[in-house]
Amino acid sequence: MLVPQVRSLVPLLNPTSNIDRFLEDFFRLEHVLPTFEREFEVFPAWNVSEDDRSFRIEAELPGFTREDLEIQVTADELRLAGAREKATTDEKTKVHRRERFTGKFTRALRIPVPIDAAKVEAVFQDGILTITLPKSEAALPRKIQVQAATATK
Known about the structure:
Blueprint: H1 17-26, H2 29-40, E1 46-50, E2 54-60, E3 69-73, E4 77-84, E5 103-110, E6 121-125, E7 128-134
Antiparallel strand pairs: 1-2, 2-7, 3-4, 4-5, 6-7
């Protein structure tokens, strides 16, 4: 949604023009949108792919360590949680912008077929967490042999 900028054409006739100008500048789209977008971002970003035997999830987690992460798997859901502490700065440092995520997160993915939780693997390298979720044997496709019909009398 775009916010139109409306300014008084005759500032002398509008005694509140300075206040109006301050509020208009404060609520301009450039100032509001970055905060608004961050509230609705999904973290972490991940790619999900599937082959005939498993699902593969690749999650971007820059700045995290293995110890920061927790993975839980049930028969039909993956839950990824973690935390990153806020970077401390000394009192003399003035922070102009802080866009890196800090705090706790949880993200879940419902899997459409049963997963063999005992065989799930997770590898974390260079800020990318790769999770392989093998499908349970019951969920794997089976080739069915077609048999000839027996003649009945």
